[in-house]
User: What shape does this take?
Amino acid sequence: MKKYKNQVEENEAHRIARNESERTAGTRSLAGVLEARDQVGRPTRGADVAEVERGSIADELGIAPGAKLIQINDRPLRDAIQLKMADASERISLTVIQPDGQPRIFDIEKDAFEPLGLNVDAELFDGVTRCTNKCPFCFVDQLPKRAKGPNARNLRRTLYVRDDDYRLSFLHGHYITLTNLKEEDYARIIEEKLSPLCVSVQATDPATRIIMLGKATVGDIMERLQYLIANGIQINAQIVLCPGINDGAQLDRSVSDLMTLWPGVESVAVVPVGLTKFMPSERGMKTVRPDEARHILQQLKPHQKRACKSSGVSFMLRTRCICWPAKRCHAPRFTTAIRNTPTESA
Assistant: This one.
C-alpha cells in the first residue's frame, strides 16, 4: 500500500479515510465547474480517467475509470502537464466527478514524485492551440485536399492540424513560433519551468521573419527569446532555409545572433525547406539544390569554428559542429546543427 506522508501517529487507514472524507462536495459549491475556463479564458472539458493503476493512490481513494478530473489545486485542468506536476508534489487538491455523477474533492498528502496512478484519455483538455501564421512554406498547405465519401482514401487527419502549442513543444519537441503566446502563457512557462522549448526562429532579422511567417507582428523574436532565457527557459532553435528569403547574408545574421544567446539557446538546427507537388505555384517557393546545399554547409563552417574557438578547450566537449550532407549529394538533403550540449559525433 502507498504510504502517505503525514503524522507518525496516524495509521494508513486513517490517512485514506481522511483524504476521502475531509473535503466532500458539500464543503463548498462546485457550481460551474463543468463549464470551467482556464487562466487564458479557453473552455476546458477536464480529463476522462481511462485507467487507474492497481494499488495506487487513486485506486485507494476509490477513483474509478470513467471518472472526470476537473481541477487540480482549484485550477481548471488544462493538460497532462498539470498531472505530471501533481505527481511531483507532496500536497494536492483533486476535484473529481465520479462515474455516478457524484462530485468529490480529495486533499492528498503523499511523497514527492509518488504518482497518483491516473491514466487519462488525452494530453490537452482544452484543445490544441492552432497556428495563426501564414508561412509561405507551410507543410499543411502542401498536403492533398481530403476527398469525401465512404471509400475515399485520405491521409490521417492529424497531419492537417496546424498546431503551435507550447505544451506540445515541451512534451514532444514540436517546434513553435512564439507568436500566439499571451502574458498568461509566458507566466506559466516560467513559473513551471517548461523547458526546453523548441522554437522555429526562421530569421532573426525582423523584416525577414515577417516574410517567413506571413504576419506583421512577429518580427521581435530576439526579444522574446531573451525574455524566456532570462527567466531560465532553454531553447532549441530551428531555421527552415528557403532559398532567396532567409539564406545568404540573412542566414549568417541569424546564426550569429542566436550564438550570442548561448547557453540559453542550446542548439541551432538549419534544415532545407521541404516541398511537395501540392505546393501552390504562386508562392514561388524553391527547393535547395545539391550545389546550394554544399555551399550552405561551407557557409556555416566559419560559424562552427568560431563557436568552438570562443568556447575554450573545456567548452569543446560541449560544442560539437555536426554536418550530415547527403551521401552522394544527389538530393538536396542536409542538416547542420550547432550544438551546445554534449552529443555524439556522426
About this structure: The radius of gyration is 25 Å. The longest helix spans residues 290-311. Residues 1-29, 31-41, 312-346 have pLDDT under 50 and may be disordered.
